[in-house]
Amino acid sequence: MGKISIEAIVEAVNDLPALPQVVVQVIKLTEDPDSTAQDINRVLSQDQAITARVLKMANSAFYGFPRRIGSITDAIVLLGFRTLRSIVMAASVSDILVQEMPGYALEYGELWRHSQCTAMAARLIARKSKFALLDLAYTAALLHDIGKVILNGTMQEAYREVVAKVTDDNISFINAEDEILGFNHAQVGARVAEKWNLPPETVEAIQLHHSPDEAKVNRRLTAIVHLADAVCVAMGIGVGIDGMLYPMSGEAMQLLGLDEIEIENIISELIDVFSDQQIFEIK
Ligand SMILES: [Fe+2]
Ligand SMILES: [Fe+2]
Is there a contact between 66 and 95 (Cβ–Cβ < 8 Å)? Predict the structure, then answer.
């Protein structure tokens, strides 16, 4: 099969739904220091489905609050604007990410599980490495593989070729994707993030999640997303064929000041959180 043209990719990115208005408004409000919890509550109440998901996520074991968070206002008071914003983002992209992606050997729900795992791992890694913007790490990690949604159809046709390339030439999955398609899911994901007007460091972290050593805008953020992804690959959560020959960057670990023991600790913390399977349900 031939390589896909950049025009075809641009068109596919344009076809992807825009972020829901509610999310765009919540992002705006959380950036404005004059906003109140009521303002955000008012916007979110227009979308009951997202509100229900947000509350469910806010109540998950991951955030570890002993008492139930019963309302958006409660969630803002307990979690803060930034964390709420990152949860709203997750709640709104779950429909896109939950789909089955046969081109990447991912069943229904698997990419969503992988994205959630990576987002949570990124938040933990950010905290351990004293990266202050926990929610920036969470959101970039949540979206790191979103390019797969766009490339899924093309990958379905190229599947055998790409897998053969990995095994025959002993190269990583993303390099095989590059060679066969002329594109990889990380580059395409970065275009999606641009379309959604996410900050340049988020775009970079998505684009370079498989090659973090090339990052320039925010090296630590990209390193966090990469390691978080690697952790979820190691845990076998929603990996599909992207996990074939996945090299973990030693430079990224060094940059964040993490050693193997700390990575192990992060994995066991995540295993605890995931024992509550509800964490992955979107309904
Ligand atoms: Fe990836
Ligand atoms: Fe991934």
Answer: no
Q: Which of 206, 276, 214 is nearest to 251 (CA)?
A: 214
- Ligand 1 centroid distance, CA of 74 (Å): 35
Helix (H) or strand (E) holding 151: helix 147-169
Contact 189, 147 (CB under 8 A): yes
CA distance 46 to 37: 15
Q: Residue 193 in contact with residue 202, Cβ under 8 Å? A: yes
pTM: 0.93
Evaluate the CA torsion angle 210, 213, 216, 218 in order and state its sign: positive
Q: Which residues pair with 6 in a beta bridge?
A: none
User: The domain that contains 106 carries what CATH number?
Assistant: 1.10.3210.10
Going from the Cα of 55 to the center of ligand 1, the distance in angstroms, rounded, reads 28
Which ligand gives the minimal distance to the CA of 238? 2
Count of the separate structural domains present in the chain: 1
- pLDDT, one tens digit per residue, over 152-185 is 988 888 888 988 998 899 888 899 999 998 889 9
Dihedral angle sign, alpha carbons of residues 17, 99, 139, 178:
negative
Query: Which helix (H) or strand (E) is 122 found in, with range?
Result: helix 110-128
Cβ atoms of 127 and 134 closer than 8 Å: yes
Of the bound ligands, which one is closest to the alpha carbon of residue 172?
A: 1
Token pair 């994901």 is at which residue? Answer: 189
For residue 247, the enclosing domain spans 6-16+96-280
Q: Is the pLDDT of residue 10 over 90?
A: no
Domain contains 78: no
